[in-house]
Design a protein that fits this description.
253 residues; alpha/beta; 6-stranded parallel sheet; 3-stranded antiparallel sheet; 10 helices; 9 strands; 17% strand; globular; AB_hydrolase_1; AB hydrolase-1 domain-containing protein; methyl jasmonate esterase activity; AB_hydrolase_fold
Length: 253
């Protein structure tokens, strides 16, 4: 039986960002599931009302809760989706063959320490005031949502991607709930799931040195690199998909 890939998007994106990779994987015979986390993609939940990290990840929890007992998946997380992947490895250890982090925070305890925050949080200050915040509970309360302003998205997220893909993304990107990053984990269950990291070598969001530091702190079983911006599913879909297939083949062997 061919591997089953489950693809988890980053903050403000949705299942739509995987359209090229899904097509390539399915053409090669793999089973592919692309999830919209709560308030993302075509999920019409109000991001201002996503109350917790667990609430944000409810679609992922629901997927694993309904997965047949004898079935395992390759779980892939891009960008902030890496935190969701780690979350799943704690809750559904026996249902994940391998966890794949793509330009993503790979933090065993989540954002539990200052070093976790330094390694896993994008520093976009060199580009100026790039974040657009939403204040669902009023301007005198902390922001409830965040997204990169439309005029900065191509420069920061998609500078090596085809223009048509970054244009599509600008039309589909939605504010993401701030609770999506509020994750802390306790225990060693995540060590029971093999991990693979795919570095994006020209990333302007999660810098290369941040990625390498996380790899050093919590070494995965394999590390691959791709010549891409922060979004290899757009800028290097064939190479990126080839790496996913290679990971699947190593499991099947």
């Amino acid at each position: 039986m061919m591997a089953h890939f489950v693809l988890v998007h980053g903050l403000s994106q949705g299942a739509w960002c995987w359209y090229k990779v899904r097509c390539l994987l399915e053409t090669a015979g793999y089973k592919v599931t692309c999830l919209d986390l709560k308030s993302a993609g075509i999920d019409r939940s109000d991001p201002d009302e996503v109350s917790s990290f667990e609430d944000y990840n409810h679609p992922l929890i629901n997927f694993f809760s309904n997965l047949p007992e004898n079935e395992k998946v390759i779980l892939v997380g891009h960008s902030a989706g890496g935190v969701s992947v780690t979350y799943a490895t704690y809750k559904f250890t026996e249902k994940i063959q391998v966890a794949v982090y793509v330009a993503a925070p790979m933090l065993k305890q989540g954002f539990s320490t200052e070093q976790d925050i330094k390694d896993g949080t994008p520093d976009l200050s060199e580009y100026g005031d790039v974040n657009e915040y939403g204040y669902g509970f009023g301007p005198d309360q902390p922001p409830t949502t965040v997204m990169v302003k439309s005029e900065f998205q191509r420069e920061i997220l998609y500078h090596m991607s085809p223009l048509e893909d970054s244009t599509l993304a600008s039309m589909l990107t939605r504010p993401g709930p701030r609770t999506a990053g509020a994750a802390k984990f306790i225990g060693d269950e995540a060590d029971k799931v093999p991990r693979v990291y795919i570095k994006t070598l020209h990333d302007r969001v999660l810098k290369r040195e941040q990625q390498e530091h996380m790899i050093t702190r919590w070494p995965p079983s394999q590390v691959f690199s791709v010549e891409s911006d922060h979004s290899p599913f757009f800028s290097a879909p064939f190479v990126f998909t080839g790496l996913l297939a290679k990971i699947a083949s190593s499991i099947e062997m």
